[in-house]
Amino acid sequence: MHQPPIGHLHAADPDLAALVEAEARRQFAKARLIASENYVSPAVLEATGSVLTNKYSEGYPGRRYYEGQQNVDPIETLAAQRARDLFGVEHANVQPYSGSPANLAVYLAFARPGDTVLGMSLPMGGHLTHGWSVSATGRWFNPVRYGVRAEDGRIDMDEVRDLARRERPKIIWCGGTAVPRTIDFPAFAEIAREVGAVLAADISHIAGLIAGGAHPSPVGHADVITTTTHKTLRGPRGAMIMSTAEHASAVDKAVFPGLQGGPHNHTTAAIAVALKEAAAPDFAGYARQVVANAAALAAALAERGFDLVSGGTDNHLILIDLTGKGVPGKPAAQALDRAGIELNHNTVPFDPRKPFDPSGLRLGTAAVTTRGLTAEHMPRLAEWIDRAVQAAAKQDEAALDRIAAEVAELMAAFPMPGWAPAP
């Protein structure tokens, strides 16, 4: 049953309530290894579903365009203060609706259309909004892209420096969506200072690891930091922008009125809850366990002959090149889903296949760690992944069904925040 209960939804719209319950059962039964997903606490769920969704609050605390902000202003102020305290930053804006609008606000604050920006190539692990061609950021600005070295899958900082010196970008992005290794924020900062660029660190994937002390922080190196509030941070689907005091006004004006109207107050409240949870002592243990689980899973996969981009991982994320297994990423991911293991197909560096039918898989350990799995369970996950990929090659549906039953049996022993089977 759902926690908090959804009795009113069952009464008002039983069809939709049934779908919500079905999704909860699916999340309970599967080993969820999508690197950008997690489980939020019941407290975050309650804040997200609260009456705060009724209130419109265009503007900032103390400077709103609507009356009746006596409670909303303290909520947003509290969320921003918790972000400043947790990450040790001078300024935090908690209003962005999601990660992409947060990144767009950085462009609005620090660049003009046509300016040059330097970001990581999407197929190499970067994000669409770091200047990729199909994104508005690649169409409105002049994108220059860096990648990774073919021999080891690591970011080529020499290439970053050479491109920055030659192209003189206004903004340099670091961070991405499929970067399994520690980001060298000091090296990026040195390059940005040399060429007079604003360094923007997108920590959406690793924010929870940074908050928990399991990954170095960009604070003190990056001029501006963007992040989603879910993924490893275990909050709602929202975003934040953090910066030095020098850039606070530019950031705030870019978010509102530059890009958005009223913030989603229920999400702001849920962000505040998640930030309080991330500041608790046990969250540091969670962050360390996420990294330990990823390392154990990567080692177990490597032992089974999987080709890991960069040879392994330093964070929560693992990128697999399936070329040697003879199965493309998309059918492998679909087979794994049928086998009770949820992840996503993904391009790998220098991938000869198309993005919608790539050679790789991307997976992460944030969600299974929230459920309570530890490093001792990772070899079993690797075994199931191996068996499922082999079954995908043979189109052996019966084998996938057997794996799914084994996965569900294991996951049933670990509670899921927000839902539990009926007694």
From TrEMBL:
Pathway: Amino-acid biosynthesis; glycine biosynthesis; glycine from L-serine: step 1/1; One-carbon metabolism; tetrahydrofolate interconversion. Coiled coil: none annotated. Transmembrane segments: none annotated. Its EC number is 2.1.2.1. GO terms for biological process: glycine biosynthetic process from serine; methylation; tetrahydrofolate interconversion. CDD domains: SHMT. GO terms for cellular component: cytosol. (6S)-5,6,7,8-tetrahydrofolate binds at residues 122, 126-128, 246. InterPro entries: PyrdxlP-dep_Trfase, PyrdxlP-dep_Trfase_major, PyrdxlP-dep_Trfase_small, Ser_HO-MeTrfase, Ser_HO-MeTrfase-like, Ser_HO-MeTrfase_PLP_BS, SHMT-like_dom. The modification N6-(pyridoxal phosphate)lysine is found at residue 231. It is an enzyme of class 2 (transferase). The keyword Methyltransferase applies. The keyword Transport does not apply. It catalyses: (6R)-5,10-methylene-5,6,7,8-tetrahydrofolate + glycine + H2O = (6S)-5,6,7,8-tetrahydrofolate + L-serine. It is found in: Cytoplasm. Its cofactor is pyridoxal 5'-phosphate. The record marks 230 as: Plays an important role in substrate specificity. Catalyzes the reversible interconversion of serine and glycine with tetrahydrofolate (THF) serving as the one-carbon carrier. This reaction serves as the major source of one-carbon groups required for the biosynthesis of purines, thymidylate, methionine, and other important biomolecules. Also exhibits THF-independent aldolase activity toward beta-hydroxyamino acids, producing glycine and aldehydes, via a retro-aldol mechanism. Thus, is able to catalyze the cleavage of L-allo-threonine. This is Serine hydroxymethyltransferase. It comes from Thermomonospora cellulosilytica.
